[in-house]
Each structure stands twice: as C-alpha cells, then as structure tokens.
Amino acid sequence: MASANKLTLFIVIFMLAGILSGAAIHEYASQEAIKGWSENITLLTDIFLRLIKMVIAPLVFSTLTVGIMKLGETSTIGRVGGKAMVWFISSSVLSILVGLFIVTLEQPGSGLNLTIPTESVETGLAVGGMTLKGFLSHTIPTSIVGAMADNEILQIVVFSMFFGIGGASLGEKFNAPLVAALDVVSHIMLKVTGYVMYVAPLAIFAAISSVIATQGLGILLNYASFIGGYYAAIILTCLVLLAVGYMVLKREIFRLVSMLKDPVLVAFTTSSSEAAYPKTLEQLVRFGCSRNIVSFVLPIGYSFNLVGSMVYCSFASMFIAQAYNIHLSFTEVAVLMLTLMLASKGIAGVPRSALVVLAATIPSFNIPVAGILLLMGIDHFLDMGRSAINVLGNGIATAMLAQNEGLLEEGAELVEQEA
Predict the structure, then answer these.
(1) How confident is the model at residue 257 (pLDDT cuts 50, 70, 90)?
(2) Of 285, 311, 254, 309, which is closest to residue 398 (Cα–Cα)?
(3) Cβ atoms 348, 138 nearer than 8 A
(4) How far apart are CA 370 and CA 380, in angstroms?
(5) Rounded to whole angstroms, what are the CA distances from 69 to 16, 52, 149, 192?
(6) DSSP string, 21-53
(7) Helix axes of 277-287 and 411-418: crossing angle, nearest 10 degrees
C-alpha cells in the first residue's frame, strides 16, 4: 500500500511540475524554443504509452482466455456476458442523459451565433470507415497476430472469446496445462506493468508540460464555460455511477474508489484509458473480485463501456448545434443520441475516437462538421476527463458483476490478508 501511495504522490507532484514548467515556457520562451520543447519532451510520454501497449495484447489475451476457461460452462459465460452488456448499455444511456441535462441547462454554445459554412471543411479525422462494413471489419480479426501487432483490443477480445469458449468446451482434463501456462503469462505481464509504472510520473510531466507550453493556460479561460460544463457533467456521471455502485456494493464502493485512484489518475493525466488497463485489472483483483470475472469483463468493458465518451458526444454535439443556432426536435435529439451510442461501440482503439464518432454522425442531422474545429484545440483537456471516467466506470461495473455472481471476497478478509 505504501508504494501505491508513493506513486499517487509522485504523479501529483510531476503533474503540477508539468503545469508550472509549461506555463513558464509558454510565457518566456520563443516560438522556436516552445516547438522544440514540445516535440522533444513528449518522447517520454510516447515511450511510456509504447511500453504500456507492449503489455496490453498479451495481458488481454492471457487473462481473458483464462477467465473464460475457468468460468467453465458456456451457459455461465453467456450469463455473465449478458449481464455485462446490459449494464454497459444502461450506463451508456445514463451518461448520455447526464450530458444532455447539463448542456441543455448551461447552454454553453448559445450566443456564439456562428454562420453555417457553405463549403466543406477538412477536420483531419478519418471517418470513412464509419459504416456497418467498416465496423465489422474493425471488430472481427483476419489474423490474431495482426490484431496483436496493431493493438486492436476489440479484435483480441473477439479471438480470445472464441479461443476461451473452445478451450472450456474440452473440459478441465485437456485445458488445465494451457490454463496454467497462460496464468503464468498474465502474472508475468502484471509484473512487467509494475516496472513500466515507474516511468508514469515522467510521462505525465511531459504530456502536461507539452500541452501547456504550446497552448498556454489562456486556452482554458477562453473555453471556461464549455470545459466547466463538460466537467460538471463528468462529475455528475461519476456520482450517478457511484450511487448505483453503492446499491450493489454498499460501503465497499468507497474502498473500491480508493483502490482505483491510481489507474484513474494515470488515465486522466495521460489522456489514455489504455495506459491504466493493467493497473485497473490488478487493483480489482486486490479489491476481492474473482480474477476470472475481472479477466472476462474488463477487456469487454474497454471496448463497449465508454461512459466518458458518451458524456462527451452528447455534450459536444449539442454544443455545436447551439453555436450554429440549430434547434433539434425531441425526436431528432433521441435519434442523434442513439446513433452516437451505436457508432461509439467498438471504436475504442481508433485515435481520437470520440471526435471521429462526432465527425461521422452529426452531418446526418444537418449539424456542420466544421463545429468540431471549435473543440480540437482543447480536445486533450476533454480527453483527460473522458479517459478517467471510462476507467472508473469499468472498475465499478466489474466489481458489481463480481458481487452479483457471488465472486467478490469480503473486504475485511482481504485487508486482513494484505496486512
């Protein structure tokens, strides 16, 4: 526990150092010096994210396959998977409603009175694959080696589920050696993750310093209304998730949040929920969740339970509509939100996925895609919030399912074992 607290302390210290250094460089350095600093310092962040991605593929494959094989019968796998999907869809709807409530209440886009552009605008976002064919090709792998090479989590999940179900159907007599081997692989990957996390504070310093040095603290003031409302929606969504979690986990929800603070902080400061995956898995097991449940539910959640992205998509789409004085009927809003929810599923591995979903969806509702340009400058600060809540949402969902299946150890017993 002491080492975990030290990591949190170092992350906070280096985050503050990044803000101060970035602000100082933006204020006093030349444009050339700022560009050189931003390009070079982000090498630390790139190294950290590459190290994390190096671990993700073997960790997801080994833990998910073992989890499915140990769950045993396909009926059990179907039951747990079905419960997970019901919760993921429900949490997405809740997140969308929270985003809509705050953006309607605050009206951050009203008063901008922007003119709808007559010419098409290039956003630089790859939206060509946002079709049913594109979604299926992104979901189903042609090669597990290729999926692992490209770090396509959803494709790895699909293959692992087929592989795990096939292994489970053979019975314990045949699959026991493979389960034991993959279990060792997962523990080795978690150990490697522990080493990689030593780099996290430096990576966080680099990411924050680079953004502040390039854009300055002033950009936060210019978009204060939007950012404030957006983070109010994020916080309210967190409270809703915690309230639902409390109904199932009771007071244990507070211990869960305490244990998830490190992965949530890593996701927030690096703007990457992927970076927090290994630590989230480890902390959920320490919390008392069955490793089989965690290994099965968490990877699926990373592809389908994107509560942060849902808050962002609902908030941002309505903000753009308000900025251009576009009034949508109740039916149009409902269809837009449903479309955004469906389009976001399985797109977690796509860079700037929330922006891609917006760019692909809003033109169908006569909302100018040019409005996305209003948000691209602050997308890093928005991504921090949606990445963090994605991690928290997946952690709560996994713990709730473990409790529902009777596969959650008593907190008091676990704390006693750790002590």
Answers:
(1) very high
(2) 285
(3) no
(4) 18
(5) 45, 26, 24, 24
(6) HHHHHHHHS-HHHHHHHHHHHHHHHHHHHHHHH
(7) 110
- Distance of alpha carbon 234 from alpha carbon 349, whole angstroms: 21
- For residues 205 and 15, the answer to whether their CB atoms sit within 8 Å is yes
CA 239 – CA 230 distance, rounded (Å): 14
User: Phi and psi (nearest 5°) for 408?
Assistant: -120, 120
Sign of torsion, CA 407 64 284 382?
Answer: negative
* Residues 6+ away with beta carbon under 8 Å from 399: 245, 249, 252, 253, 256, 284, 287, 289, 408
pLDDT category at 243 given cuts 50, 70, 90 is very high
Nearest CA among 101, 52, 94, 57 for reference residue 244: 94
Question: How far is it, in rounded angstroms, from Cα 320 to Cα 300?
Answer: 31
Cα–Cα distance measured from residue 295 to residue 66, given in angstroms and rounded to the nearest whole number:
7
User: Position 300: which residue type?
Assistant: I
- What pLDDT digit, counting tens, does each position of 346-363 carry? 555 444 567 767 776 787
DSSP 408: B
User: What pLDDT, in 10s, does the model give residues 189-216?
Assistant: 878 877 887 887 888 788 788 878 887 7
- Is residue 10 within 8 Å of residue 201, measured between CB atoms? yes
DSSP β-bridge partners for residue 289: 408
CB burial of residue 251 (10 Å; 0-12, 13-18, 19+) = exposed
**Which residues are within 8 A (CB) of 4 and not within 5 positions of it... i.e. 6 or more apart?**
262
Q: Give the pLDDT confidence score for residue 415 in this predicted structure.
A: 40
pTM listed for this prediction:
0.72
> How far apart are the C-alpha atoms of 316 and 108, rounded to whole Å?
10
Distance CA 289, CA 70 (A): 14
Q: Are 224 and 103 in contact (CB under 8 A)?
A: no
**Cα first-last separation, the chain:** 9
CB atoms within 10 A of CB 375: 19
